[in-house]
Sequence to fold (114 residues):
Amino acid sequence: DLRSVYGASETGSVAVAGIDLLETKPGAAGHVLPGVEVEIVDAQGTPVPLGTAGRIRIRSNRVASDYLGAKAERGETLADGWFQSNDLGRIDADGLLMVDGRLDDMMNLCGHKV
Fold:
C-alpha cells in the first residue's frame, strides 16, 4: 500500500494520493487532507476558479507562523495564516490537487536548496 504525501516543512502533510491515482493522473498530489485549506491564486493573490492553474497556497492549524532569523522571507511565504508555496498547480472539480511545476527553479529537499 504505497502513498505519496504532498506538503512542506512549513505546512506538514497537505494531500495524499495512492499509487492507483498516481498511475492514472500524472501530476496528482492527491486529495487535500481534512483540516487543510488549499487555494490556487493568480499573481495578485486572488483565488482562481477550479481547474485554473496558479500558485498553491496552504492554510491549516499546522502552518508555521514565522521563520526563525529570516524575517525578510516572511512576507513572501507566510502571510495572513497562509503559506505561499512556489509550486504551481490546480484543483479539479473532485478536489484533486494537481502540481504542474514551480515559479522558480529552487527546491528545498530536507533543508538542502537544489
